[in-house]
Design a protein that fits this description.
Elements lengths: L2 E5 L2 E5 L3 E7 L5 E8 L8 H5 L34 E4 L10 E8 L18 E9 L5 E10 L4 E10 L5 E13 L5 E8 L2 E9 L3 E7 L8 E8 L10 E6 L5 E7 L5 E7 L6 E3 L4 E3 L3 E6 L2 H17 L12 E3 L1 H4 L5 H14 L3 E4 L27 H11 L3 E6 L3 E2 L4 H5 L19 E2 L5 H17 L4 E4 L21 H19 L4 E4 L9 H6 L2 E3 L6 H11 L8 E6 L12 H8 L3 E5 L7 H16 L1 H6 L1 E6 L6 E7 L5 E8 L9 E3 L9 E4 L4 E4 H6 L2 E3 L7 E9 L8
Parallel strand pairs: 21-22, 21-30, 22-23, 23-26, 26-27, 27-28, 28-29, 29-30
Antiparallel strand pairs: 1-2, 2-3, 3-4, 5-10, 6-7, 7-8, 8-9, 9-19, 9-20, 10-17, 10-18, 11-12, 11-14, 13-16, 14-15, 15-20, 16-17, 24-25, 31-32, 32-33, 33-38, 34-37, 35-36, 35-38
This protein binds alpha-D-galactopyranose (GLA).
Length: 730
């Protein structure tokens, strides 16, 4: 049970396992005291022990504040580290001095104006709002904290209201700031590039700033909006880990600042580079939500908190808990070169193999025969699809398949009717070249008229045919960023206003088409974040579908995101991106750690491979509930060796599927045993592939043999089923 106890200026948020508390100093400044394993005692003197000087020293007019761990530091009145809130007032002054004015506690999880936010529909959370004010500017800051019953996560956000008489420029508004008392931490980030997304990077903290950000307009493949601070020695199963993730899809920053007293200030929020927000009297600015996870059972423990959060408090709609159709996408099979007949052939072969949905990718609209044109002109190309979208959708449905369609709604090609009609509808800056990426420009989603166009264009197609699924793509970063409609003093608001516009379009479309399954995509995984997940329950992990690469990408992704969010498909070999020839079996074993599908024309398989594929699809179908919604546990990291392994365990521990992939073969290898986790120790499990019955304890202590076939990229799969009626071995 989550609870919030407030006593003598001490705010204690806790659930069954975790406590988070802070207190107000004598003059109303929030000081961070503790975040970690649950503390039972309520009248603990800990917070008093904690102040190193006399408490009265930590007041608003001394430089001692630099020694005080704080909850939401501001700049300019004694603390010399980076503030969570930095502003410029109308007179040019920059100090802010927050003082507590009051608080409230509610059992209802608040929404955040215009932004995605975690929800709780079952009363399983408590939210604390603490109000602060700055007497000089008149700014009122409300800090929101939610503690959940079912996961060890604190959701934090900040709301800044201008209750003063003059406009204030917000220069930096973090969603959360936490001062950890020492600097003995290692920083983990998910960093990479296109086709190499979310690689796990780990490094010890050093004095000064470190962290990750994005100024690309999308949350980005370069750095996911996430970081973790872990104690040295923390591994998948042991050690303390503190995660910081932002529910946002645009520019962000996540940083750890080690100050001169060797404290660590961890912050996450909107990127303040190229950002400024003019707050007029009476206006309110809301920062996106930060999700702070804690675990003392290593990285798997932290991931379990995030996975529960995503499944129960982030993903919405009909597909939140439902099975996802196994899909067949034509992109790698045809790119732009298709017509209706070709599409129907590919779909028919998918149907025969047991797939459930056909997705038509890029190239169906305008005169788009390559990537040089037509984005923005969402009218069906009748040369390719003579029976229109409706005709194609009907034919696919008659086969017994669902039908899905690709869009890239936020973009415009210079060669398009839309651009010719509205050249000022794209992001740009006056008198400067409009930088193209993949021969396209980004629509200015900070504008209401552009948002309306985008929403209507997508809705018109969805209304015109029976479409069950949308792949919502976004294939370039934003640069230069500027809006033709905003005045000069508001140009630096464009990137955030873009996200607010996009979120409102997504809110409307997902509400209007509740039966459509939306999958987000951005050149693969350029926008794989909790913000998009609020609208779309799954996201295409990467344009790199090579099984070996995908092991790394999906392993990294799973640090925060459950497998039900990870789009993963079996594709052609040799692989498009890497040229590697992975066995079909490995491609299947890796793709089934995600929302399963195929990205190829099955006609390229020979008779044996086709038979194997039919059997594979039937097998994954038979285990789909377990695979999609079971608890995912990482066992061996591909970032630390040549073998990766993970398992998915049924929540009641009655079954599990274990997968291991050896990426690189060596001669005379040592014999490896793979020790499992998360099983019921006394339950007897039949390991189907080995035809043996072992107890959970034996599987977790002794393990299973890893005997791979010769060659690189070989996989092993073990299916564990609890013996009926013989639960206990004692
Ligand atoms: C992006 C996507 C791909 C595909 C192409 C189509 O790269 O990530 O999956 O849809 O666009 O142009």
């Amino acid at each position: 049970m989550s609870e919030i106890i407030v006593q003598n200026g001490l705010f204690h948020l806790r659930n069954g396992r975790m406590s988070y508390f802070f207190r107000l100093t004598g003059d109303g400044l929030p000081a961070h005291v503790y975040w970690g394993e649950r503390l039972e005692r309520l009248d603990s003197p800990l917070d008093r022990l904690f102040f190193e000087s006399r408490e009265s020293d930590y007041c608003h007019n001394t430089l001692e504040l630099e020694k005080l761990p704080q909850e939401y530091p501001t700049w300019g009145h004694g603390d010399l580290r980076r503030g969570a809130l930095e502003v410029t007032a109308a007179d040019g002054s920059t100090a802010v001095d927050l003082c507590c004015e009051g608080y409230s506690i509610t059992a209802e999880k608040p929404t955040l104006a215009g932004l995605p936010a975690t929800f709780d529909r079952e009363g399983g959370s408590r939210t604390l709002s603490v109000a602060y004010a700055d007497a000089v500017t008149g700014l009122r800051v409300t800090l929101l904290y939610t503690v959940f019953d079912d996961c060890d996560v604190i959701a934090r956000s900040a709301r800044v209201e201008n209750a003063g008489p003059r406009a204030v420029s917000l220069e930096r508004v973090m969603s959360a700031s936490v001062d950890l008392i020492d600097d003995r931490w290692e920083l983990i980030t998910l960093s990479g590039a296109w086709a190499r997304e979310r690689m796990i990077d780990r490094r010890p903290l050093k004095p000064g700033f470190q962290g990750v950000d994005s100024a690309r307009g999308a949350s980005s493949a370069q750095n996911n909006p996430f970081m973790a601070l872990v104690r040295p020695g923390t591994d998948e199963f042991r050690g303390e880990a503190y995660g910081f993730a932002l529910m946002y899809s645009g520019n962000f920053t996540a940083l750890a600042e080690v100050g001169m007293y060797r404290m660590t200030r961890a912050q996450i929020g909107l990127n303040d580079a190229h950002f400024r927000w003019l707050l007029e009297p009476g206006e309110t600015f809301t920062a996106p939500e930060a999700l702070l996870a804690w675990s003392n059972t290593g990285l798997n423990g932290m991931s379990a908190q995030y996975h529960t959060l995503v499944r129960r408090h982030v993903v919405r709609g009909r597909y939140a808990q439902a099975q996802r159709p196994f899909l067949l996408n034509n992109w790698e099979a045809t790119t732009f070169n298709f017509d209706e007949e070709k599409i129907l052939q590919i779909a028919r072969r998918g149907r025969e193999a047991g797939l459930e949905m056909f997705v038509l990718d890029d190239g169906w609209f305008g005169h788009r025969d390559d990537d040089h044109s037509s984005l923005g002109d969402w009218t069906v190309n009748l040369k390719k699809l003579p029976h229109g979208m409706n005709g194609l959708a009907d034919r696919i449905h008659w086969m017994g398949l669902k039908f899905g369609l690709w869009f890239e709604p936020e973009m415009v090609s210079p060669d398009s009717e839309l651009y010719r009609a509205h050249p000022d509808w794209c992001l740009h800056q006056p008198d400067r070249t409009r930088t193209e990426g993949r021969w396209q420009l980004t629509l200015d989603m900070s504008r209401a008229d552009v948002c309306e166009y985008v929403e209507n264009a997508v809705a018109a197609i969805l209304d015109s045919a029976a479409i069950d699924y949308v792949k919502w793509d976004m294939n370039r970063d934003m640069s230069p960023v500027g809006s033709a409609l905003l005045p000069p003093e508001r140009q630096a608001e464009t990137a955030h206003r873009y996200m607010l516009g996009l979120y409102s379009v997504l809110e409307h479309l997902t509400a209007r088409f509740p039966n459509v399954l939306f999958e987000s995509c951005a050149s693969g995984g350029n926008r794989f974040d909790l913000g998009m997940m609020y609208y779309m329950p799954q996201a295409w992990c990467s344009d790199n579908t090579d099984a070996g690469s995908r092991v790394l990408i999906q392993y990294g992704t799973s640090l925060v995101f459950p497998q039900s969010t990870m789009g993963a498909h079996v594709s052609h070999a040799p692989n498009w991106q890497t040229g590697r020839m992975s066995p079909l079996r490995t491609r299947v074993d890796v793709a089934m750690w995600g929302t399963f599908g195929y990205e190829m024309d099955l006609a390229e398989l020979d008779a044996d491979q086709l038979a194997e594929t039919r059997a594979d699809i039937a097998w994954v179908k038979a285990h789909r509930d377990l695979l999609l919604y079971g608890d995912s546990i990482r066992l061996l990291s591909p970032f630390e060796g040549d073998t990766a392994a993970w398992m998915v365990v049924a929540p009641d521990r009655s079954a599990a599927v274990v997968t291991a992939v050896r990426l690189l073969a060596h001669a005379n290898e040592r014999r490896e045993r793979l020790r499992l986790a998360g099983l019921a120790p006394e339950t007897r499990y039949r390991v189907e592939e080995l035809d043996v019955v072992l107890t959970g304890q034996e599987l977790m202590r002794f393990g299973l043999p890893l005997r791979f076939a010769p060659g690189d990229d070989q996989s092993l799969r073990f299916t564990l089923v609890a013996e009926q009626g013989g639960d206990s071995c004692q």
